[in-house]
Write a sequence for this structure.
C-alpha cells in the first residue's frame, strides 16, 4: 500500500496529505503548550490571591512588585489630584465611562503609587467633573496590585507620547511608565486597583476589581480535535486510495458491453 501511495498518480496528493497531517499534529502540540502556559499562569495568580495582604510603605522593597500582580495590598497616603488622569473607554454594567487614575503619596515615604480609584460616567469624564471625587487628607487604600499596561499590537489602542511640558489627562492604557513621565516625582512600577469599601454601585467613582478567569480554557479540547483530524487523514486517505484502486481494477475487469 505504501508503494501505491507514492506512484505518479497519487504522489502529489500523498505529499499534501502528509504535510496536512504534520500541520495538524503541530497545532495540537501548540494547543497543549498553551494549556501548560495557562496552567502556569493560573498557578502564579492563585498564589498571589492566596498570599496575605502586602502593606506598602516606606520600608517595602519594590524589586519584586511587578511579579506580584493580583496580590492584595494595603497602603496609606495622600492623593495628588493635580496629577490625576482618566482611563477612557471603560465599561461598568454595559455603560461607557472612564476610570480615574490618581497618584498616592505613600505616608512616610518619598514614593508615590498610581491608584485606579474607580469608574465615572462618560459625560462627567468628558466635562472634567473630577474635583468632586477628591478625597482630602490621609486615606487608606485596599486593593490589588496590577502591572503596567503597555502592550502593543494590531487592534490595541496606543497613546501619544507627551511633548516636553505637555500633560495628557486621558489615556487608553494604564501605562505607568508613560504616565509617570509627566508626573514631577517617581511612581512605583505598578498600580493599584482599589477595592470597594461599600456597595460599588452607590458611591462614585465605582471601585471594583477586574474579574478573573482561572479556567483552563478550551486548549485541551482544541488539541484533541487537531489530533483527531490528523488520525482521520492518516487512516482515511490510504483507505480512500485503496478503494479507488479497487474500483479501477473492477472497471478494468468488466467486459465491454458495447462489443
Amino acid at each position: 500500500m505504501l508503494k501505491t501511495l507514492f506512484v505518479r498518480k497519487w504522489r502529489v496528493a500523498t505529499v499534501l496529505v502528509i504535510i496536512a497531517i504534520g500541520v495538524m499534529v503541530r497545532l495540537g502540540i501548540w494547543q497543549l503548550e498553551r494549556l501548560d502556559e495557562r496552567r502556569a499562569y493560573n498557578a502564579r495568580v492563585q498564589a498571589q490571591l492566596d498570599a496575605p495582604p502586602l502593606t506598602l510603605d516606606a520600608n517595602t522593597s519594590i524589586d519584586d512588585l511587578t511579579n506580584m500582580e493580583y496580590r492584595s495590598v494595603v497602603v496609606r497616603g495622600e492623593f495628588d489630584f493635580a496629577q490625576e488622569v482618566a482611563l477612557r473607554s471603560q465599561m461598568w454594567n454595559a455603560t461607557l465611562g472612564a476610570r480615574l487614575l490618581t497618584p498616592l503619596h505613600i505616608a512616610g515615604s518619598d514614593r508615590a503609587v498610581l491608584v485606579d480609584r474607580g469608574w465615572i460616567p462618560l459625560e462627567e469624564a468628558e466635562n472634567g467633573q473630577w474635583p468632586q471625587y477628591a478625597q482630602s487628607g490621609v486615606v487608606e487604600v485596599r486593593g490589588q496590585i496590577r502591572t503596567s499596561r503597555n502592550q502593543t499590537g494590531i487592534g490595541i489602542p496606543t497613546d501619544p507620547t507627551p511633548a516636553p511640558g505637555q500633560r495628557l489627562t486621558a489615556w487608553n492604557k494604564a501605562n505607568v511608565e508613560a504616565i509617570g513621565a509627566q508626573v514631577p516625582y517617581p511612581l512605583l512600577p505598578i498600580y493599584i486597583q482599589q477595592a470597594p469599601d461599600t456597595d460599588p454601585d452607590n458611591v462614585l467613582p465605582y471601585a471594583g476589581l477586574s474579574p478573573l478567569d482561572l479556567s483552563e480554557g478550551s486548549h485541551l479540547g482544541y488539541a484533541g480535535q487537531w489530533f483527531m483530524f490528523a488520525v482521520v487523514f492518516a487512516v482515511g486517505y490510504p483507505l480512500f486510495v485503496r478503494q479507488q484502486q479497487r474500483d479501477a481494477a473492477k472497471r478494468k475487469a468488466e467486459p465491454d458491453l458495447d462489443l
Remarks:
- The chain has two domains: 2-41+218-253, 71-194.
- The mean pLDDT is 88.
- Residues 71-194 form one domain.
